[in-house]
Amino acid sequence: MPKTATEVQKKEDGIESEISGNGIERNDRLTEVPRDILSFILSFVSFRDAIKSRILSRRWKSICPFMLKNLDFNPHSVLGIDKRRWLSNRVSSEDLCKFVRGVDQFVELYKHEKNSILPEAFRIHVLSLRLKTLILHDCYCLQKIEIYSASLTTFEYTGQSKRLSFLHVPLLEKVHIKFLVGYKNHTRYMFNALAKDLPQLQILSVVLTKNELPVPRRITTFSYLKQLELFVLASPDYNLLSLTSLINAAPLLQKFNLSLHNWRSEDTGSEEQYSEHAHLQLKEVEVHGFCGTSNQMELAIYLLNNAVSLDRMTLTTQRRSYRGDRKWTSTSFYWIEWENKKEHAYDLLLKQRVNSRTNLVFL
């Protein structure tokens, strides 16, 4: 028997109905609730309960969970873990990984606007000896970060927190910092308080923009720093000799990596002269984004003149960026003007070596 237009429309809308024994059609009023109202109702229940409610009606199954307006991701809603168990720290590392993966997968699938609300202060106090690496990326709205972890060895931070506080991190040796928003106390902290908070630091990686530049002349000494990685975003003619203040503040520095990235800025840095300083331990220097500009040549000459134990200096046009979690990206760069003068620049720098055994490499 052919269906009426009303029956077809009901089927398309997903409205369920059934025919009673006396032939009278009986509608399920619950399924006739408009989609917007249904989504509004579901927004008041937990994500877990909202998913369960979809079994009440075939039509409800078509209500995409992404329409929910308020999502509370917690161990109970995602994994069904009892709150008391969570607060008593009786959650396994495997469950923690499942929780993180579950939230990440949902956020990745969600194609609409996302609003994430984080607390103003992030505090991590870990007594366990298992936490070795802590990575915080793009954590907006955080005003303060406190870390207490006796086992932490590696810390990476990308964000706009106004204050970093290392309360107890006796084994922390490797740090990467990139501030997304410039504050005056960022500069003060990076070049003064950081060395005091982390006297045992051995590897430091920082991103310097116009907000952190120029580097102050006086910097607290990094007594045990062995490797320094700088990612500098500045104008092409910026006075790179100001970076030597950081090198001077690390008497045990063995490896210096510099990645240069052009950034539109009217600030070209200070024109003042920088005094010579012997670097007794520096063995290896790498400069990425090198194309033979006068300020780059000045820095290379300074290092060749003062690094008395330098084994190798590598200068490459390839630009390198750090993406976090030990992941790098490189971009090839070709400049015809540099290719034409590369041989002359090589001969000039070769004559500046204070250590005749220094291997000079152009890539």
From TrEMBL:
InterPro entries: At1g61320/At1g61330-like, F-box-like_dom_sf, F-box_dom, LRR_At1g61320_AtMIF1. Residues 1-20 are annotated as: Disordered. Transmembrane segments: none annotated. PROSITE patterns: FBOX (PS50181). Residues 27-63 form the F-box domain. PANTHER family: F-BOX DOMAIN-CONTAINING PROTEIN, OS02G0105600 PROTEIN. This is F-box domain-containing protein. It comes from Rhododendron griersonianum.
